[in-house]
Hints:
Layout: H1 5-14, H2 25-34, E1 36-39, E2 51-59, E3 67-77, E4 94-104, E5 107-113, H3 118-124, E6 143-153, E7 156-164, E8 172-179, E9 183-191, E10 197-199, E11 206-210, H4 211-214
Antiparallel strand pairs: 1-2, 1-11, 2-3, 3-4, 4-5, 5-6, 6-7, 7-8, 8-9, 9-10, 9-11
Amino acid sequence: MKYGLAGLAALAVLLPAFASEGSQDAALDFAALAEGSWTSLAQSTDPGYDWVESETVRIMSERGDGVWLYQENAVMAASPDAGVRPDAKSQPYFQVVIRLQSLGPDQVHTTTYRLETPEARSGAKGQWRVGAGVFDPAWVGAPACMGQMRRVAEGYWQGAAECPNTYKGAVRVDSRSVRTPDTYVNWDRGFDGEGLHVWGPPRGGYIFKRKGDAQ
């Protein structure tokens, strides 16, 4: 599914008019699966993957225009044997807001938003921590990507998206993900205008395990 930058902004505004004016059951189901603390510690024994921890929490639950999540990722170390960076959790490399909207009993539309300003990123950082405060809607920036997640079995979801991206000379990002009750697989790869892979793991996605199950 491809969108230009202008198209992403337009769809983000128009989608609530037709996507899911009634039940958000599918979105709530997916959100319950996505929330929590996740770690790629086991996979980081492979030199192609860092030890990353990912945190996802529900935000803005009072709103009626979808189910909203905040996610931040931090690199803890290059491997289990490397020293953990003492400031790792306070220096997330990835911070996004995700809106989930039910398209049916087993399908969810996802819109990922940037946090545009340093002030917004600083304010949102650490929202997963207990007592972190109220998420300010003003922190939500422009939409960065749209996709869909589909339930393929009870507790199992998969999806993909292709969106504009300029990181490291790319023009698009190909994003694929799988969610299960205890595992989150995310594979993002950037490609340039000639279709050459310019960033992201070439051999497969990051495999995160829910921290309660991984420790």
